[in-house]
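Incident log, entry 3
Record: Zinc finger FYVE domain-containing protein 1 (412 residues)
Problem: checksum mismatch between cached and fresh output.
Input:
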Amino acid sequence: MSAHTQTAEKGQNTTLLCQESYVCSGTDEAIFECDECRSLQCQRCEEELHQPERLRHHERTRIRPGHVPHCDYCKGANGNIMHASMTGSRQIAAVRCQVCKINLCVECQKRTHSGGSKRKHPVTMYHAGKAQEREEEEGMDEETKRKKMTEKVVSFLLVDETEEIQVRNEEDFIKKLDCSPDQHLKVVSIFGNTGDGKSHTLNHTFFYGREVFKTSPAQESCTVGVWAAYDPVRKVVVIDTEGLLGATVNLSQRTRLLLKVLAISDLVIYRTRADRLHNDLFKFLGDASEAYLKHFTKELKATTARCGLDVPLSTLGPGVIIFHETVYTKLLGSDHPSEVPEKLIQDRFRKLSCFPEAFSSIHYKGTRTYNPPTDFSGLRRAVEQQLENNTTRSPRQPGVIYKALKVSGEEF
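Fresh output:
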């Protein structure tokens, strides 16, 4: 039994051979697919067949690794489409009949090989699904491709409300993220009061509005504990946290939980929906900075050293973006065009004797919602700009992120 026949019986895609047999007798590997000849052709057959003037302008596709040919029956001998896809073009083949020596899509196989002796013809299966996806992607614009990449993303519980890590080990963490263990990532987390739309903000900033993180119009917070998801477009671990003012039996436990998230974050979004920035925002960030420097700096530095990362101490603090949504009031700094919002925020910290020294940067991004829905485009641009900056925060492998989370859990 030949290797070609063995592979065919296993139902796997085989090396594509010339279907013309014009020069090579059908033994040479196919190099081109000619749409108008409706066949796969080797180098020699392609050259000989297209020598006549009337055939020189045939549309030919060079066969790449993993190429799947079109269905031979979708287009009849007279060029009319007998069976076509919704786009009006020939379908990608699903199988190749080893007896008839033709490629067939699913519909044409049913129509031509479902009865009689042809039903028993041995066939080779093509991985048509992937080929179809490649063809579709080639016709997509960049934004559509990015959106498609996030279609299968799901979130998972990373740490429960009792501070217990819900992934068994590094391998489990990587598996749930659904990313490569060698992929270098950053971590973006969100903080804010219960009911201010943190989950909704993450869904629209990273996942095109898909409900990766659960949202609810109910009074109770629908985020309990810490949830995570992987954004394959920006290569970041996105973390959703429990609200700061939510009902809890142990306030200190929840505070510790949020600080552990802070310890592994490269960028923190503080989400607030209020007409003015309240003091609790500044006090939380000030207290978080103090706790970070007191409890995590030394251990995180040791962790990065153990993992072989050359990261200086000054880079360990995350950046912060304060995302402020108003309805009736102007955005911060709009009354003082000469003063940037970040300066006004620093002044406010000083007045409250809060010193956010642990954070590598603090930025303000505001949006005024005259009519819903909220515009997240400004926040999205600000996040992407911060993620692109590697001078203070370097991406690292998911295993390192897991170790840092484990260390923060053990030490605090």
